[in-house]
Amino acid sequence: MICSGSAVPRPKMELKKNLTEDEIRFFLSQGSGSHPKLSFYRSEFPPELLPEPPLKAAVLVPMYKKRGRWYILFTRRTATLPEHSGQVAFPGGRTDSEEESPEYTALREAEEEINLKPQDVRILGRLAQLRTISNYLVTPVIGRIPPVYNFKLASEEVSRIFSIPLDWLADPNHYEIRMRKLPNPFPAVPVIYYRPYDGELLWGVSAEITLNLLAALNRI
Fold first, then answer.
1. How far apart, in Å, are the Cα atoms of 38 and each of 14, 158, 191?
2. Which one, of 61, 60, 66, lies nearest residue 18 by Cα?
3. Domains of the chain
4. pLDDT digit string, tens, across residues 112-137
């Protein structure tokens, strides 16, 4: 339940230039730790809410460049899934074994969900792990994909794929913090919400991963 909303009072930052793939790799290689500038976005859940150790998971954040402009590819989960149903997300899922790397998990899940072949993805780096309210510890893996691709959706998991331009996502006028209630007696936590784009609402962990990527790339 959304209980309040407020815009983030920060000046708009324009992209000074378009990033190259090598620059993205360089920025991501500088460390995957949390960014101090985003500390007020982080939703720290009370330990009593999630007493069990989290399960490991990974998602692929697919990026592509078209006509000189970077885009991020998103999915919308089907309404019938038991967790995060109907939400905007990245391809991804639970890690199957301790030996499995986040990159392997992310690529495996992307192939299963949207038919994106691992050989068609160039891994660019990782972001900091995030814990979800469903008690997963998620590692975001950034990968470049072709601008045109023959996707095939796993209908039981994914209802749609769509893209949002990186510069639109970086505009501070397009997102805000809202307080979201947790089950009683826990206090509300700050959650990031974007404005609707192409009929889709990006919010929560997927929005936080997006902002972490933008921060890592010095876009916000």
1. 18, 29, 12
2. 66
3. 2-6+16-216 (3.90.79.10)
4. 999 999 999 999 999 989 888 888 99
